[in-house]
Amino acid sequence: MKYNKKLLIAHTFLASILVGCGGAPLISTPIENIDTSPLKVAELTKAEKENWGHLDLEKDTIPGMGVDRAYAEVINGKKGKKVIVAVIDSGIDIDHEDLNGVIWTNEDEIPNNGKDDDNNGYVDDIHGWNFLGKAYNEQLEYVRLIASGNTNSPRYAEAEKLHTEEYNTWLGRKTQYDQIYQQLLSNDEILSNHLGKKDYTKEDVNGINSTDQKVQGAVQFAKFIYSNGIDSMADAKKELADALESINDQLNYNLNKDFKGRKTGDNPDDFNDNPGYGDGNVKPVKKSESHGTHVAGIIAAERNNGKGANGVANNVEIMSIRAVPNGDEYDKDVAKAIRYAVDNGATIINGSFGKSFSPHSDWVREAIKYAADKDVLIVHAAGNDSKDIDVEPNFPADNINGKEVADNYISVGALAPKYGSGMVAGFSNYGDKNVDVFAPGAQVYSTTPENEYDTKGGTSMAAPAVAGVAALIRSYYPKLSAVQVKNVILDSGLPLTTKVVVGGDAENVQPFSNLSKSGRIVNAFNALIMASKL
């Protein structure tokens, strides 16, 4: 659907006069002076950092989605309908203490009997489906193109050039990070020995008064680490170790032309080959496979249970669909995953993945259209390449050469937690044609495997925030169609024109309104008020 900016005026006027049913009137956030919101000078508290996406720009001067305000002022006392949200991602820890009460169960399937009891084509799909089987690591799509030897492909030369550039870049990063990590370990050992303990603090380091040059050098190194926003040397070691793991994964798997990752016994270039491939085990294959669990928690971690984080939506069941490896997903898996979600009762699908090459993009577009025909909303991450995706393509996409194939698709860019010029996350893609709206995506706290919690950033985190808002709307106003829910989310957001740094480039400063179709940030409070009167 072509987004008509003229409709914004009408919808904004409508929102400003809507009232709740009974009691005091509910008035949506006034937008006339929203761009003059005060900048939050003080550092965010721990509680604010772990919940900033649920806070409110008007009330808290933090560019969250007004979720807490929506629960307090709009949802309070209302009863909603259960909504199934499919998460197409890596595996999800369905036993997590903050998720185990919100996981979808296929009641028509008898667990572990080796039969397809509900005749949906998938055996023992109790909580969803695993299209990856036992695989985890994968090549990038353009590396698969090179490995295929298909020199007739119109993008083959581009892929080879890109591979040379990327491989050399990551090889250089490995050398650099290895050196920094060794320096970190060496200085950490010096400080540990000097202080007589391994778990020393920033205050311990600041209190060191030594004439030993090695100790002085280690103190200086530690203070440099602290100046970069890292609270301890232990945290620095973890971050660097994680970074090195990611770099090695790039070199050993993602960019390795000889690596064979697929283990499902099907031909990924034949859509109809080996139907029912994969298995029903939707859990991560190892603890570091945490992306899907983090995404699921943003949508639906159990609220107010005294554990970890609150999800955006209550009344949600998460359908886990494991289709995104550590590398690029296959178009076949994505298209099958969308169709599985639709056919098994999901009314919202979250996709936090993407790539710049897509040999079977038509399969995915057909699946998006299939979802639209069945009234299912798809919310997707815009991507983390700091690029204008109106110019450089990012897949999956709901359009062919700019023409949309369906109107059930929301593409989401990412916000950072501080209102002002740095409000757009530096990694976030943007585009006033192919990105619909922005939502909290940087420094988001959520669930990770084995009953743990962590902070992650990406448009991967912004998309499930919006999927959560969509779930709230579909729960409390179930008569609204997927298209209406999409329009409510876009039209009820806060329109900002303030100038922001784009793509993390301080030389690229633009009005925020230029970066998406709507020029808005998602606001759950406004969305529920608007939905109540449609």
Automatic annotation (TrEMBL):
Region (Disordered): 258-291
Pfam families linked: Peptidase_S8
Entry superkingdom: Bacteria
SUPFAM superfamilies per record: Subtilisin-like
Active-site positions on this chain: D89 (charge relay system), H291 (charge relay system), S460 (charge relay system)
InterPro entries linked to this entry: Pept_S8_subtilisin_bacteroid (IPR017308), Peptidase_S8/S53_dom (IPR000209), Peptidase_S8/S53_dom_sf (IPR036852), Peptidase_S8/S53_subtilisin (IPR051048), Peptidase_S8_Asp-AS (IPR023827), Peptidase_S8_His-AS (IPR022398), Peptidase_S8_Ser-AS (IPR023828), Peptidase_S8_subtilisin-rel (IPR015500)
Key words of the record: Hydrolase, Protease, Serine protease, Signal
Transmembrane segments: none
Domain spans labelled Peptidase S8/S53: 80-492
Leader peptide range in chain numbering: 1-21
Keyword Protease: yes
Family designation: Belongs to the peptidase S8 family.
Protein name, per record: Peptidase S8
Organism: Winogradskyella haliclonae
